[in-house]
Batch of 2 targets.
Target 1
Amino acid sequence: MWKDKAMRLLMLSAASTSIFLVALIFIFLMKESAPFVLKPGLGALIDRQWIPVSFVEEHFGILPLVTGSALVTGLSMLFTIPLSVLGAIYIAEIASPVEREILKPFIELLASIPSVVLGFFGLVVLAPLIKNLFGLGTGLTALTGALLLTLMAIPTVITLSEDAIMSVPRAYKDASQALGASDLQTIFQVIIPAALPGIIAAIMLGVGRVIGETMAVLMVTGNSAIMTWSPLAPVRTMTATIAAEMGEVSFGSMHYQALFWIGLVLLAVTFVLNVIAQRVLVRYGMMK
Amino acid sequence: MIIKKIVPWLAVLLLLLLQTSCDSGQKEGSKGEAGGEAGSQKMISIKGSDTMVHLTSSWAEQFMGLNPDAQISVTGGGSGTGIAALLNGTTDICASSREIQGKEKELAAQKKIDLVEHAVARDGLAIIVNPANSVAELSMEQLRKIFIGEYANWKEVGGPDLPIIVLSRESSSGTFVFFQEHVLKKADYTPRARLLAGTSALVQSVEADKGAIAYVGLAYALDAKTKVKIVAVKSADDVAAVLPSDETVRAGHYPVARPLYLYTNGSSSPEVKAFVDFCLSDAGQKIVTETGYIAVK
């Protein structure tokens, strides 16, 4: 019997390692960012300027970084959602088995391209394209970053949406067609509404992936900390700020703590998105 | 039932794994000791300024050629990164393109680190624009106004009617801080400045974008001479504009120039001292000239 127990314990600890690690990371972030609350106070984060290195006055306002991330993520979802949902419908409902065998591996291949490689592609190919297309001075814009992120989000959203569509019971489709509905009517009026919670969860996870992406956006968005909603302006995202500046700060400085606050905000956002996605899935019985 | 059958096997497997990992651990341990006894395999790590990576790695190569026992690793990351690493004891030598600052000095004093500064070379910062830009010279005042965002169009400095796109290094770069202190007169960069990671990204963007302006180390600018245009700089309105070159930087005529440093810990090993001595020797200074910087001796 003791063997069973020991084995149980071993497996339990293996399974809970990741929870433990997440807790540790949270504690670490809290600890490093805590002194900022006393001096200069959390109000300093709610500022429209992010000027961490200055001879005049340092500003640690994360608002331009939050809007930067939001702009890039929102734009990228504008491209990702229609592309992936339509793609998922095609793969799940319309494609012949042969087509599916070709499409699926290639979509998954897209997910495995390292983001630095995509970033390089963006810098050398996409940025000049955007520049010429819109007659801009430079192609390093929020739009360029959003397009790259779309490439990264598509595999996640397509795969999960396709699962959701596939899990709609066959009986729905049969019933709809028996009532004389066409294929198109069946897809858009029966299958999609039934799979919608799964598709929404897929989109949420896609947003989580996009908002946390660092390398590619660092390379192509121009990294100017300005508050703007123009897709053709340069923006600085939260992730890029941490990546670009963490190397330089002296430990324990206000700048250092401010970077940890950005990390906390980022973690909170992705956490909330994941929780919502899981809730939606559980609620509609799409996850056992 | 199946689990019960598997468990003993798993246990055996686990034990075997533990055994082998212990073994290899021991072996590694003994190897390390042997290396320590010989004492010649000392690894020196140099970290810091991206501008200086080319120079320090040339030094390292030559030094390792002369001393086959020496092992040197060179990494970039920015002067600030290097200084932080030196203060945290994760690097032996910090290459820095700016002087160490007050806050960092305080931190070093707190950590009881005796920082030693070695000025090993000089570098001029070249101001680069797109070859299609007709502007050939700028005064220090004009440069300042461009980079703080007061001028937004090239026609304000006698160029074409084209918006100015200000490009800069990331704030972790020593070049960023040097330029801010000496050209911007400690004012902040315009928030619209695009911060790019690394010199090559700057050169690439200036090559591609007609309205772009950026600052890069002279050595890089000369390498990229066919792709970008180097602008002559006037230190004052009534002085002739000077193009950066070996002679003008050394003679002090070119206004945007700076010393390059190696920082070491005062209590560092003899290997580190030997390396710094080598950098300052005739052979070391010859490498400085060969890599496009300006020798100090």
Target 2
Amino acid sequence: MTKKNIRKGALDIMFAEWLFFGLAGLSVLGAIGLILFRHPMNGAMSFVVTLISLAGLYALLSAKLLFAVQLIVYAGAIMSLIIFIIMFLNIQEHDLPDEEGKGLFLLGGAVVITPIALFLYKIVKSLPGSDTKIIGNGFGDVREVGLILFKNWLLPFEIVSILLLVALVGAVVLAGKKGVGK
Amino acid sequence: MTRDFLLLLPLGIVGAGAILLMLRSALGKLTLEAASLVSMCVFALAFIAQILSGTIGHVSPYGSVFNGMLMVTDFTRVAGLIILACGFFTSMSSQSYFKENGFATVEYYSLIAFAVSGMLLLTMSQELITAFISLEIMSLSIYILVGFNRTCVTCAEAVLKYLMLGAFTGAFFTMGTALIYGGLNSTKFSAISTAIAAHGFLHLPALVGGAFFIIVAFLFKVAAFPFHAWVVDVYDGASVPVTGFMATALKTAVFAIFANFLMLDPGLKSAWVNYLFYIAILTMFGGNLIAIGQNTLKRMLAASGIVHTGYLLIALVAVSADHFTGSVILYYLAAYAVSTLGIFAALSYLTGNGEMRSQFDDFKGLAKKRPYSAAAITVFLLSMAGIPPTAGFMGKLYIISSAIQAGQVTLAVLGIVSSILSMWYYLRLIINMYFHEPEETFETECSVFGPVCTLILAVAVFAISLYPVTI
């Protein structure tokens, strides 16, 4: 490897690291916005930021399929459904509840969460680190993910279908017309 | 291969039954009575299949196909039997309940079957993601069952609270799973126990954190002390048979996976024993304090469920991880399930339309009007309180003697104190039924199922007490 190539590799890694911190920061900011915004629409929009930056993090990990799925399913389909429902309800400023003492609740929550966060920080620091680089061999492709899903993770894959059925029945029961089927 | 099939047959029967009921409800050709009969048949068949599939030792059904993610042991089989019985008796008493309250549809029975299939999977799962999905199958079905009555405001409140807190639990569980995967590169129980055996539990920080979050999730689901606040409102808001089902089957399933997880390795258990010790004590006494203040029967039973969680935690602290059989835990779960289901079965035909009879005062003089029902309720309450010839007494006896064997004398003594305290609210209802004149009279017409269910369970309270258990 020539000297130039080594420097380029180091630059790539540094760039990937900066990208990681940028995306991680954005995702946290989006999540904070989701909690702090008063109007649900703004909350939903800032949640989109979180979902998209998570997709970026997946891409940094070379998880190509997961990156696409995250964008299409979460940031695309699910968020547009949520936003559609919020718009459908046409929420005005006077519909929003009075949020008295919100600051106090947030402060209390922060006090509770701080030790857990410190605990988590210690744990995450103990995990072995590795460089962000592109992994070849088709890692993260549809084919590879599919093989793993159907070979090693067959059982969870199958029982998710039961979970979806339950969700389906639940939607019919809780949101269907009242008094039908008696 | 046939053996693997037989081991998973109960799960298959319940799943197929659930899908069958779901399809029939979509076609709309099944009456409610028929649906409850179908679901009773499904549970009875699955129960028989579970008994006949007798195994000894640890078998991983379809181990190569499912990658060893399921494990059937005698412990999971008996837990499965308790869950299936809970499903059976819930379907039976629901039939009477919905004679009076007309909000049910056939989907109700289908959801109970779905919940039971999730619970069966939960008891058998040996891998965290499988466990999470099973936990969600179970919880999602129960959220829907709690909110089934859409005209009632307390139900809506209950389902919202339960859904929010359940989502928290799910998040904690996934977070724990992610940490364990990050540390060990695997989520399988076998990999966790080899890693602990190789390095020691406290030398794996990711595992410590992951196990912490997962144990918090389990404590949440069984309503142990710092996470018990939701349980009273949720149990109160749900309809009577659903409350009975939640209190028994759900607790059995979660305690089964909790025990399976905790007993993976003596190192894992010994690290948490001290915390579980305090949680058990606080759960028992906190539950007792809440129960003493309640005026409605359902809220009192919900709070007493917290106390019983405390006794079960004593059993978890006391059992040894080396030769884990879990017979004490299962015995207590069976005894508790029988008495709780029994009292909810009796309530399902006594409460009347819109659950009119709910306060303690409404039960005044019940012994004069309905002597047999009052006698049955007395049997169940005495069993919960732990009065000698009943199953509840034997369960407590086994738990306390195993605690003494394990050297946890403090826990044993506090367990006895707590069970004496609990007499206060159990006897209060008995006194109301027997030593007061009836104030208001209203009769409920009911089908034969509710009373028959109550009778069977009352007999079971004594039958189970005769069953010997080696600690």
